[in-house]
Amino acid sequence: MTPIVPIRNEPCDYAWGQRGGISRVLGSGESDAVEAELWLGSHPGSPSRCVDAPWESLLDWERSTGQELPYLLKVLAAAEPLSLQAHPSAERARRGFDAEDARGIPRDAPHRSYKDPQAKPELVVAVEDGFEALCGFAPLARTRAEVEALRTLADDPAPYERWLELLDGDDGLHCSVEWLLSDDPVAAGLAADLGATAARDPERFEVVGRLEERHPGDPGVAVAVMLNHVVLDEGESLWLPAGNIHAYLSGVAMELMGPSDNVLRGGLTGKHVDVRELLAVLDFADCEPPRLVPEPEGDHVLVHRPASVPSGADVPFELRTITGDAVVETASPAVAIVVDGGFALEVDGEGVSLGRGDAVFVPDPGSLRLTGAGRLYLASAR
User: Fold this and answer.
1) pLDDT value of position 2
2) How far is 331 from 317, CA to CA, in rounded Å?
3) 288 to 163, 236, 240, 248, 254: CA distances (angstroms)
4) Cα dihedral 326, 357, 251, 114 in deg (nearest 10)
5) How far is Cα 128 from Cα 304, in angstroms, rounded to an integer?
6) Contact at 8 Å (CB) between 272 and 45?
7) How far apart are CA 292 and CA 13, in angstroms?
8) Angle at 237 between CA 337 and CA 34, to 5 degrees
9) Is the distance from CB of 82 to CB of 211 less than 8 angstroms?
């Protein structure tokens, strides 16, 4: 077995990506192309290519060995907001995938909600200061205060009064989201009016104004009023389990997730929106932002570990940030990428030098010796 396999891929050119964003982060020169995500994994949507290895890609590695890579690592560079979305649990993903297969929906159909039968819990770690996201429902008292402020600004306060009534009732967040995303004409009128209303207090409702500029009249903007707004410094992270509603707004980050492309959207997008399925998977608990505090592992290693919190107890993957000499023991195949500086990586007596932008796959669990300085992200599973 080859102990260290260089891997490559091309950035996905989703409309919300930064021009030359991935190239800039990885030091591969200037580019005017829209670059949104670089996938490092085996998912058939964009499997990483293997260099000087027995396999053409990591998908080919899976098929050849019978093993499965239990995660997907991405470099993300967002210039504009992503869709308002959530991801299913493993059970929901399997049922949804099988049901859409049974209905004969092609697996690559744009109106399909379940692209594969996998869950997609994810963590995100800011690569640069200023990574911005909406994530999880904010504490209910805070949301109520925001809606009350909009009511006082509105020409017609009645739709906002209806929103407040729903928030004050049983399952207030669920009922509010369901109403805002429905075809109720009062809700539609609120969505159409929200941009003008929020513009009367542009500092308080800056995020609403930004979203409205890109998605005027989209009811997802109203839902965004009820979410936590977070700005991360480099190295800070969020944990987004199944059912967490979120939308990344801007910035550069590493994402580590289940090996899936299942996205259930509720707005802020031109892609398929599936309100019924989104409502079925959402966790409507209100809470503070779901930050994930990294754990030190030696002098130069921090581990972002979902299993350190109750909602991630059964999640096997973890992401290490390595900044200097370290020895790391892995229990699964690993993927590494360098974003700053350089490292020598040694596995089973074989070594390779990694510079900025280089990525490798280590097929076997074991001991990885790293020598150097900079910043290297290492994904593996317990």
Assistant:
1) 76
2) 10
3) 21, 15, 13, 17, 22
4) -90
5) 16
6) no
7) 29
8) 55
9) no
* Spans in the chain with pLDDT lower than 70: 1
Q: What's the CA gap between 18 and 251, in Å, rounded?
A: 9
pLDDT of residue 1: 61
Q: Which helix (H) or strand (E) holds 209?
A: helix 206-214
Cα-Cα-Cα-Cα torsion 188, 190, 191, 195, nearest 10 degrees, comes to: 150
- Residue 306 is given by DSSP the state G
- Neighbouring CB atoms inside 10 A of 143's CB total 22
**What residues contact residue 102 under an 8 Å CB cut-off, 6+ apart?**
none
Q: Do the beta carbons of residue 323 and residue 354 sit within 8 Å?
A: no
Predicted local distance difference test score (pLDDT) of residue 260 = 92
Do the Cβ atoms of 60 and 238 come closer than 8 Å?
no
- CB-neighbour burial class of residue 213 (10 A; exposed 0-12, middle 13-18, buried 19+): exposed
Contact of 208 with 225, CB cutoff 8 Å: yes
Instruction: Record the tokens describing residue 241, joined without a space.
Output: 């389990």
Sign, CA torsion 176/181/185/189: positive
> pLDDT, tens digit, for every residue of 231-264?
999 999 999 999 999 999 999 999 999 999 999 9
**What pLDDT, on a 0 to 100 scale, did the predictor assign at position 41?**
97
371-to-115, 304, 351, 354, 374 alpha-carbon distances in Å: 40, 21, 11, 10, 10
| Chain centroid offset of residue 76 CA | 9
Longest dimension (CA), the chain: 72
In whole angstroms, what is the distance from residue 276 CA to residue 271 CA?
Answer: 15
Segment (H or E) for 68: none
**For residue 235, what are its two tokens?**
């190295």
Angstrom distance (rounded) from CA 136 to CA 289 = 7
Phi-psi region of 104 (alpha: psi -120 to 50; beta: other; left: phi over 0): left
Q: What is the DSSP string of 124-165?
A: EEESSTTEEEEEEEPPHHHHHHHHHHHHHH-SS-HHHHHHHH
Nearest to 120 by CA among 13, 5, 41, 218: 41
Would the pTM count as exceeding 0.90?
yes
